[in-house]
């Protein structure tokens, strides 16, 4: 199956930039990174740092990088433009922030650049203040520390531990990415039930997820 990658700049739990890669791409602003976990067509997510010159940045030594969410998505199920729509709709692209939290789109080819610019122009027509989102070429993406990965899922240790994933597996897991979105409150029980067979969860895990989704409704 053909896949693409996207990077979103994050406040690790929120993002201000996003990157979608043809084998990558990138975009940006303030939204829970979990929001993309259960978005249609998203396969995997990672948070990290990109856009700067410092080699091997860390959360405590970030240099000039931007906190970013990397998305891997299936182009047979969603499009770069669809993901851009989520990006524009769910953050304030007119807010000015320092590099760590800035709104940005990191593109990996000219098609991505063009779509980013076109959708920025479209969104500018519906907001009063000037959009400050930067559209920049993507460069090296540095994966953030383990404790930042799948943050919302980590708030439910019983469910997380039941998956039996080590830290490296957690970063790469499609199931963990999808669950991170659902337990973060970004998917409905109906949507979860529609894909649950493909997630290969136990009955106990399914009930735990449903209970968490239901609780977050109130």
From TrEMBL:
<dbReference type="GO" id="GO:0008113">
    <property type="term" value="F:peptide-methionine (S)-S-oxide reductase activity"/>
</dbReference>
<feature type="domain" description="Selenoprotein methionine sulfoxide reductase A helical">
    <location>
        <begin position="164"/>
        <end position="214"/>
    </location>
</feature>
<comment type="similarity">
    <text>Belongs to the MsrA Met sulfoxide reductase family.</text>
</comment>
<protein>
    <recommendedName>
        <fullName>peptide-methionine (S)-S-oxide reductase</fullName>
        <ecNumber>1.8.4.11</ecNumber>
    </recommendedName>
</protein>
<dbReference type="InterPro" id="IPR049006">
    <property type="entry name" value="MsrA_helical"/>
</dbReference>
<keyword id="KW-0560">Oxidoreductase</keyword>
<dbReference type="InterPro" id="IPR036509">
    <property type="entry name" value="Met_Sox_Rdtase_MsrA_sf"/>
</dbReference>
<feature type="domain" description="Peptide methionine sulphoxide reductase MsrA">
    <location>
        <begin position="35"/>
        <end position="155"/>
    </location>
</feature>
<dbReference type="InterPro" id="IPR002569">
    <property type="entry name" value="Met_Sox_Rdtase_MsrA_dom"/>
</dbReference>
<dbReference type="Pfam" id="PF01625">
    <property type="entry name" value="PMSR"/>
</dbReference>
<dbReference type="Pfam" id="PF20939">
    <property type="entry name" value="MsrA_helical"/>
</dbReference>
